[in-house]
Amino acid sequence: GFNINPKDEL
Amino acid sequence: MNIFRLTGDLSHLAAIIILLLKIWKTRSCAGISGKSQILFAIVFTTRYLDLLSSFISLYNTSMKVIYIGCAYATVYLIYMKFRATYDGNHDSFRVEFLVVPVGGLAVLINHDFSFLEILWTFSIYLESVAILPQLFMISKTGEAETITTHYLFCLGLYRALYIVNWIWRYYFEAFFDLIAIVAGVVQTILYCDFFYLYVTKVLKGKKLSLPA
Q: Domain ranges in chain B?
């Protein structure tokens, strides 16, 4: 499945 | 991490440092919207509260700390140290017309109705429009110093590179965040008019001035 919104971006 | 995200982050960092150096070297914040800079400080503060709760990587943590530190340093230079040079009369965008709807939208459309998640969503929506007071100021005065246009170009480039990064991550990492993507696309569109002026004027050695 898709990985949604893991917040590793700045 | 991919090359588009890395160069996007570095472009963002370059923009922030260009602005700080411009103000520091010229001892003046003329032509800079203090309101946009306050909005960016709010954006970083509300987004990076996860510094206290989760660790992703040394890169992630250091960049967050640098972004927050630089944002507050910029606000300090504009409103305290070089306050006398701040052009408040031309910085007349009504930020409550951005912050209030963006706050409402963050409460209504988010991934999870929790305090940190709503603040994160708020920061994503707010970042997408935080440059508007700066663009409004330029359209009002009809001109911008060349160094200010380099700042704006680096900021816009950062947003454009993030879109490429999301396309990459969608295909190769099965990753997507619809909230970040929609807000990011809106934000990038806001720079399009400026990109056009930057390429047709600034890159040809002319000052950015708008027809009266």
A: 3-95+125-202
pLDDT at A4: 67
- Is the Cβ of B111 closer than 8 Å to some Cβ of chain A? yes
Chain A residues lying within 8 Å of B9, measured CB to CB: 10
Nearest to B68 by CA among B96, B94, B49: B49
Measured between CA atoms, the residue of chain B closest to residue A5 is B177
Encoded tokens for B37: 């800079």
* Alpha-carbon span B158 to B196, nearest angstrom: 16
Biggest CA pair distance of chain A: 23
Write b or e for each residue in B69-84: b if 16 or more Cβ atoms lie within 10 A of its Cβ, otherwise e: ebbbbbbebbeeebee
Inform me whether the pLDDT recorded for B137 exceeds 80: yes
The answer to whether B179 contacts A5, with C-beta atoms less than 8 Å apart, is yes
DSSP B49: G
Q: Do A2 and B176 touch (CB under 8 A)?
A: yes
Residues in B touching A2 (Cβ below 8 Å) = 174-176
Contact at 8 Å (CB) between B98 and B53?
A: no
Q: How confident is the model at residue B211 (pLDDT cuts 50, 70, 90)?
A: confident
Residue with tokens 């429009």: B129
- The answer to whether B130 and B37 are in contact (CB under 8 A) is no
User: B86-110 pLDDT, tens per residue?
Assistant: 999 999 999 999 999 999 999 999 9
Helix (H, G, I), strand (E, B) or coil at B21: helix
Q: What is the pLDDT of residue A2?
A: 67
